[in-house]
Amino acid sequence: MTGPYGYPAQPGPAGFGFHAPQIRPSGATAIIAALLGLVAAGAAGYLPVYFFLELPSGFSIGDLPGLVLTALGLYLLAALLLLVGALSAFFRSVAGAVLLALGSLMVITAVLMEPLAFNGAYGLYFRMQFEFETFVAFARVVMFAVVPFTLIFAIIPPTLKYLRWRPSPAQPYRPQNQVPRQGGW
């Protein structure tokens, strides 16, 4: 760029005309959300697989009550969303945070729906889970503990700021004190 008489334009006060260095946001919250999402995906995916494998012979999936089938379907879909969301968050995609939040909400819905299939006895349901008598109860308690934190870490502003951040392209280097060459020199 040249000045009014063909001379090189002088830079203005410090910082004007030049890009300020960008500070990369910390990715700690996004990584925590993704790791918690992987744990939640494993726990949510384990429950329906366990129940499908433990069905007695001669008993069909269609024989289960509708609420149980809905809860198991929500667990499976939530596990898929949590897994894809965690992997997407590792690759710095905002869609990963959205999928982690949706998967967490589906797990919460399934957890609240599951006791309704057994006459709505929430107290008995949660008491049985926290006695840790089976590995399924342990997996559920892990899921109860991890899913709310996954949801929180997926939607907080530092996570979204990190996932949205893209560095600006590097500006070409042009020294300020060089006189442009003119033909004949």
Question: Which labels suit this protein?
Answer:
185 residues, 6 helices
What can you tell me about this protein's structure?
- It is a single chain.
- Helices cover 58% and strands 0% of the residues.
- With 185 residues, it is mostly helical.
- α1 (28-53) packs across α3.
- The mean pLDDT is 83.
Helices and strands, with pairings:
Blueprint: H1 28-53, H2 66-90, H3 94-113, H4 122-129, H5 135-155, H6 157-164
Helix pairs in contact: 1-2, 1-3, 1-5, 1-6, 2-3, 3-5
Q: Helicity, in percent?
A: 55-70%
Poorly predicted runs: none
The count of helical stretches stands at 6
Order of helices and strands: HHHHHH
Strand content: under 5%
Summary, kept brief:
The protein has helices at residues 28-53, 66-90, 94-113, 122-129, 135-155, 157-164. It is mainly α and 185 residues long.
